[in-house]
Structure formats: structure tokens, C-alpha cells
Design a protein that fits this description.
16% strand; 25% helix; 3 helices; two-stranded antiparallel sheet; alpha+beta; two-stranded antiparallel ribbon; structural constituent of ribosome; Ribosomal_protein_uL10; 85 residues
Length: 85
């Protein structure tokens, strides 16, 4: 990001410096904690840095294979169980 964007970092209390025409963050920053709502300033900054402020997953209800339906527990296979086969 160019030097004109330093106000976004300052608004969030992130210490920066300008180095060779770009913004350099001086220390590690945890901008958002798990469970916190993402504010407008945080969302804007993360978007400018091409960082998605969320994660997603999948909860399996059933497994269908070759005409049979299984519970999701059939996928709970350990590495040891695979080696034993």
C-alpha cells in the first residue's frame, strides 16, 4: 500500500513507518479475535490487504457412496487405522 493509506493503520492503532514508498507494519498485530464483530475500519483494511476476515467449514450430515448411506463418523479415520489396512 502507498503512503497515502497510513490513516487506516493509525485509526486502528497499528504502528507503521514509510519505507521505500510503501507502508511497513512495525510489529505483529492481531486485528480481530475469534468471536469479535468486524468493524468497518477493520474490514476496509483487511480488504485492502486482500485478507478475508472469516473462515468457513462444512458439517457433514450423511455420506452417500455407491447406493449406501453412512453416518459422518465413517470419515473419522486416524492415520494409524489407514496404515493397519
Amino acid at each position: 500500500l502507498g503512503p497515502e493509506k497510513t490513516s487506516f493503520f493509525q485509526a486502528l492503532g497499528i504502528t507503521t513507518k514509510i519505507s521505500r514508498g510503501t507502508i511497513e507494519i512495525l510489529s505483529d498485530v492481531q486485528l480481530i479475535k475469534t468471536g469479535d464483530k468486524v468493524g468497518a475500519s477493520e474490514a476496509t483494511l483487511l480488504n485492502m490487504l486482500n485478507i478475508s476476515p472469516f473462515s468457513f467449514g462444512l458439517i457433514i450430515q450423511q455420506v452417500y457412496d455407491n447406493g449406501s448411506i453412512y453416518s459422518p463418523e465413517v470419515l473419522d479415520i486416524t492415520e494409524d487405522a489407514l496404515h493397519a489396512r
